[in-house]
Write a structure and sequence with these properties.
The complex is a heterodimer of chains A (83) and B (463). Chain A has 83 residues and is an all-alpha fold. Chain A has three helices and no strands. The chains are: A mainly alpha (83), B alpha/beta (463). Chains A and B meet through helix 1 and helix 2 of A and helix 4, helix 7 and helix 8 of B.
């Protein structure tokens, strides 16, 4: 169950990365995007894209850590009882 | 199929090979070229066009079954909803430009949801219709290709973010730089003019300062775009970041000479009310199709026309007055009044390629009626324009005129003359009537009670 959840979270986290490495197709554009603007977008996009991903998957991230901590807590309690 | 006669192509419609705008029999049409077929079909089929039109942010259009004047290039012809008055971004107040920017970003955000992206973010693609900013270029959408950077990002920063940041952080008059820089304010210039403290704001640091540095560092260098991809989430993040940057930009329309005009006037309450009554009576006699109120201040007299359902442009030179006027329109949801910034002593000229891309004030006229209230003394005395020249200008921009004559004995004129020599021997009522009589027929005149001022209703003489 735990493994299943982690796999879900990992796939959710790498989803944005998949977008970054997706196949690129060139289409004719009449505006010059500008080399400097493209490079800035790539840097800024990676930064703010990660934030968007965190926002998007925030619920899942929160519940993952919530479960993780409650699991540790349960384990500690069990160990205390055994001692 | 009806065949179009020789049409006239809009002089501003030549950059985008996706199509062009032309005028035929008094209506505006847009040809969609075969090269844009795939994107246009996607815009319609994916539901983005319908969603944006229903939200009131994209101009409504209908496909028409004409045979194109250039059939070898044509895919379709569409007839967009007419825009009653084309205004230019440097004629907008701070909040008008900000609302136009936020509308553009809202459209880009929606487009990304529908698998499309804006390929053109010129501020000239926005027009104010029924009080709200509307995107008027149906051909500005392209299918989103995964990993492809936003081609119009630089243009958005130059057309919207840079002028708004300068107006907010430095001086509201810097919005006029857009009149010189037709493709938006260069980011290196914006970066130099902005205060140093703006480098500590994440969004301005990236979108303007580092953007400008990146442009200068990579100027004229070709790069392998495949190595610099921007994912869809990255693009959403950039749009969100621009949105939050814009929302943080504020400008307080404080007091200026004109913004406080009505608190600092020599009118009694009765004179003011009588003036309103006369203007209303003149408007009801003529019932003009549209009105330009030149020197409108915050639009008190413009609203006498707009509240009668007459489309009214409310021009003023003062950014504070125009801003207050627009905020009032927005707050009350007024649809028949458009406040715009205009210096009558130097009205918007024809600019752009071959001086034809963006029309001058006079090219966008004539108006059916002009209101020129408490204005002539400013033009004649503060700006030294002879009465005959004022007549000539007004005759070129309207068919009918409501105009107020303010004599030299009026305390407002005395104030203008307080610091200068009176060289205006010709400025008196008889000369005013004689000079205006050259081009106009004076139909009615009425003295404003408790004042020395007179209002005239005039009609332009036919040559």
């Amino acid at each position: 169950m735990y493994m299943k959840r982690s796999a879900g979270l990992i796939s959710a986290s790498i989803a944005p990365a998949v977008f970054f490495i997706a196949i690129h197709q060139d289409v004719p554009a009449y505006l010059d995007a500008g080399t400097g603007s493209i490079i800035l977008q790539a840097v800024l996009g990676a930064l703010v894209g990660a934030l968007v991903a965190v926002k998007l998957f925030w619920g899942q991230i929160k519940s993952f850590f919530g479960r993780l901590f409650s699991r540790f807590k349960r384990n500690e309690e069990t160990q205390d009882q055994q001692h | 199929m009806k065949k179009l006669k020789t049409s006239s192509i809009d002089p501003a419609s030549f950059r985008d090979p996706s199509g062009f705008v032309f005028r035929q029999d008094g209506s505006i049409y847009r040809q969609i070229n075969a090269t844009y077929k795939e994107d246009y079909d996607h815009l319609i089929d994916c539901g983005l066009c319908k969603t944006l039109v229903e939200a009131g942010v994209l101009i409504r259009h209908e496909e028409v079954a004409f045979e194109s004047a250039r059939p070898e290039m044509a895919y379709k012809l569409v007839k967009p909803e007419p825009v009653p008055f084309i205004s230019h971004p440097y004629e907008w107040s701070f909040s008008q430009l900000k609302d136009a920017a936020l509308t553009t970003l809202h459209i880009q955000r929606k487009a990304l949801d529908f698998g499309m992206s804006l390929k053109d973010c010129s501020a000239y693609n926005i027009q104010f219709m029924k009080g709200k900013p509307v995107f008027i270029d149906t051909l500005s959408f392209e299918k989103y290709r995964e990993g492809k950077p936003w081609v119009a990002y630089r243009q958005f920063c130059q057309h919207f973010l840079a002028p708004l940041a300068l107006m907010s952080h430095r001086d509201v008059r810097l919005g006029q730089l857009s009149r010189v820089h037709l493709d938006g304010i260069p980011l290196d210039l914006a970066s130099r003019l902005l205060p140093f403290r703006t480098r500590f704001t994440f969004s301005l640091l990236f979108h303007i300062h580092l953007h400008a540095k990146s442009q200068s560092r990579y100027a004229d260098r070709r790069i392998d775009t495949k190595r610099h991809k921007v994912g869809r989430l990255g693009l959403i993040g950039i749009v969100d970041s621009l949105q939050s940057a814009l929302k943080k930009l504020r400008w307080h329309a404080g007091g200026t000479e004109w913004g406080e005009y009505y608190q600092d006037t020599n009118y009694s309450a009765e004179a003011f009310e009588h003036k309103r009554q006369i203007v209303a009576e003149f408007l009801d006699r003529v019932r003009p199709k549209n009105v330009w109120d030149i020197g409108a201040n915050t639009g008190i007299f413009s609203r006498i026309a707009s509240q009668r359902g007459i489309p009214t442009i409310s021009f003023d030179i003062d950014p504070v007055a125009v801003e207050r006027n627009y905020l009032e329109c927005r707050q009350k949801g007024e649809i028949d009044i458009l406040p715009l910034l205009l210096d009558l002593t130097n009205p918007s000229p024809s600019i752009g390629w071959a001086n034809q891309e963006r029309a001058s004030l006079t090219d966008r006229g004539p108006a059916d009626m002009v209101l020129a209230l408490a204005l002539v003394h400013h033009l004649a005395i503060s700006n030294n324009v002879p009465l005959a020249r004022i007549v000539e200008f007004l005759a070129g921009i309207c068919h009918r005129l409501i105009i107020e004559f303010v004599p030299k004995s009026d305390s407002q004129v005395q104030r203008l003359l307080a610091t200068r020599e009176d060289i205006f021997s010709q400025y008196e009522q008889a000369a005013f009537e004689r000079d205006f009589g050259q081009c106009f027929t004076i139909q009615h005149s009425a003295r404003i009670r408790e004042s020395e001022r007179t209002l005239y209703l005039m009609e332009k003489r036919h040559p």
